[in-house]
Amino acid sequence: METLFFYFELGINHVLDPNGYDHVLFMFALALPYLFKSFSKLLVLATAFTLAHCLSLALAAFNVMSVDPGIIEFLIPVTIALTAIHNLITSGSSKGSYSVQLAATVFFGLIHGFGFSNYFRMIMSGEASKLTALTGFTLGIELAQIIVITSTLLFTLLIAVLASDRKPLILRILSVLVLILSIKIAVGNWPF
After folding, report:
1. Which of 42, 63, 104, 124 has CA 20 to 30 A from 56's CA?
2. How many folded domains does the chain comprise?
3. What's the CA angle centered on 71, arms 142 and 9, to 5 degrees?
4. Exposed/middle/buried for 135, CB within 10 Å: 0-12, 13-18, 19+?
5. pLDDT values of the chain reduced to their tens digit, one per residue, 192 residues
6. Quick one: CA dihedral 89, 94, 96, 101, positive or negative?
């Protein structure tokens, strides 16, 4: 049980660590166009991301597959940029093709999982039960992501209350800011 809780806390810290804000930035961009009434759809996206993240971690932890960390560190901000671009194309509405967004979110989850896989494999190397560690970590990630998407929904609700007539514009501006920040990170992580 101690192992489960250790990795649960590690999963929470992985998402909410201010030094590794790319995960929060991705969840923020993903949640930005949604409203509380669509929380279940957003939760499905976040959970799909978590499960894909877990899958790539498992593939790396069990030495089934590894990916060049330099390329992954470049691709992570690209996934954030693409999510922000999706928001801009759909004008900050969650009404775009949900199945396409779900598939993209799963793919992006795989990429993000590989970004943490080398560190995770290193700290997990001495664990007797890799499955327990992976389960705890995944549950921690999911809880932290629920915190991020709920906070984002509260933020967009505040925008709707304070500036309802300008909400679409504000959401587009926020998406542009996410896009600019993610491009800056991608350029800094250019692997070639």
Report:
1. 42
2. 1
3. 25
4. middle
5. 888 999 999 999 999 998 889 999 999 999 999 988 999 999 999 999 999 999 999 998 888 998 999 999 999 999 999 999 999 998 756 566 889 999 999 999 999 999 988 888 888 877 778 889 999 999 999 999 999 999 999 999 999 899 888 888 999 999 999 999 999 999 999 988
6. positive
Residue 3 CA, distance from chain mean position: 24
Scanning 19-166, the segments in alpha helix (DSSP H) are 22-31, 39-61, 69-89, 98-124, 130-162
Q: What's the CATH number where 101 sits?
A: 1.20.1250
42 closest CA partner among 136, 148, 115? 148
**Whole-angstrom Cα distance, residue 156 to residue 188?**
30
φ and ψ at 94, to 5 degrees?
-90, 15
Q: How far apart are CA 126 and CA 96, in angstroms?
A: 45
The reported pTM is 0.92
Start-to-end Cα distance in the chain? 43
Tokens 């929470």 belong to residue: 12
* Range of the structural domain that residue 113 is part of: 2-188
SS3 90: coil
Whether residue 11 contacts residue 139, with contact meaning beta carbons closer than 8 Å, is answered with: yes
